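Slack export, channel: ligand-projects

TW: morning all. Re-posting the request from yesterday since it got buried. We need the structure predicted with the small molecule present, not the apo form. The ligand is zinc ion; the SMILES is in the block with the sequence. No rush, but it would help planning for next week.
GE: picking it up
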Amino acid sequence: METITHNLVAVVIQIICFTFLIFPWNLIFTILFAFLSHVFVDAIAVITYHTPDVQKGDKFWLIWHYFIYAISLFSIVIFIIPYWLSMLFANIMDLWDWFTLRPIQKKIRNKNPESKWGDKYYFHRIVDWVRDKLFFWLPKRIYKRSGVLIEILLICVLSLILIFLEVSIFII
Ligand SMILES: [Zn+2]
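GE: finished. pasting the full token output, ligand included:
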């Protein structure tokens, strides 16, 4: 799924862990649950618009990505203090797979197109495994444009949960 969705899940996890657990368990479980959340959130991402490759010349694809990158960036700016820890671990799989491993692999394949180096180091192999085992029954909608509505709905629901948590913790 998109970075903002991972970020909102991460913020909810950190709020819950820091409200109900004491040090050091709040830190340990924030890191653990944030890291694992990426697997489950990505595993169900098949129900959202999520084309594996860039759709050159497709205006809808372009506008959606401008929009989702903008609000993802916005979510990083407003939540980084104090939720940087959970956001970091909720996105670490993407940071490693798409921003570290894939560029290295590209460089190696430029020299040697046959190279299989790095294939087994992708975190998203775990995501694929979990999806095949637990979420195989979900409808595949990655090329369906209406899938953006599901992602937007998820973002709204997570934002409401977050507001609810903030308000109820404030009252306590
Ligand atoms: Zn991912």
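GE: first-pass observations. The CA atoms of residues 72 and 78 lie 10 Å apart. The mean pLDDT is 95.
TW: perfect, thank you
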